[in-house]
Amino acid sequence: MDMWIGILPVVMAIGTMGLIVAEETPVFDYLGMPFIPFLELLNIPFAAEMSKTIMVGFADMFLPAIIGSSIESELTRFVIACLSVSQLIYMSEVGGLILGTKIPVSFFSIIDNLSTKNNHLVTNHCGMCSHDFFK
């Protein structure tokens, strides 16, 4: 019970801050820009819009789906949904829980883990979905 009381405010604060940063600032637009050429290479429609959702998944699991809901392409929305479910480590819940425990993991090692995993996930999901057998 002590962990819930200690972690719940952190979870709500990180999720709220992630939503504010994602909706009101261009931070995630800039962080997602390196993915645009790769997504265009894989023929993913609306690559610029999707690139933002790749990085915003670090803040919360549901933010990519909320931001990507206005994208017209079903393929792009499907890839966003797969990525948001597959990311698993996001700061609003799991990251806050890990940082709140006595596990010797730093914030920067969580970011390093996320960036490595995102590169693999984007390659796998986008690569599979851009092939003809999924169209």
Class based on secondary structure composition and strand pairing? mainly alpha
The radius of gyration computed from the alpha-carbon positions, rounded to a whole number of angstroms, is 15 Å
* Sheet of most strands: none
Could you state the order of secondary-structure elements as H and E?
A: HHHHHHHH
Q: Which of globular, elongated, flat, extended, rod-shaped describes the shape?
A: globular
Task: Determine the strand fraction and express it as a percent band.
Answer: under 5%
Please tally the β strands and state the result: 0
Average per-residue pLDDT, rounded, comes to: 78
**Tally of alpha and pi helices:** 8
Helical proportion, percent range: over 70%
Low-pLDDT residue spans: none
Distance between the termini: 48 Å
Offer a few descriptive terms.
single chain; 135 residues; mainly alpha; 71% helix; 0% strand
Short description:
The chain has 135 residues and is mostly helical. It has helices spanning 2-24, 27-32, 36-41, 47-56, 63-67, 74-86, 91-100, 107-129.
How would you describe this protein?
The chain contains eight helices and no strands. The longest helix is centred in the first third of the chain and has 23 residues, at 2-24. The termini are far apart. The protein is mainly alpha-helical and 135 residues long.
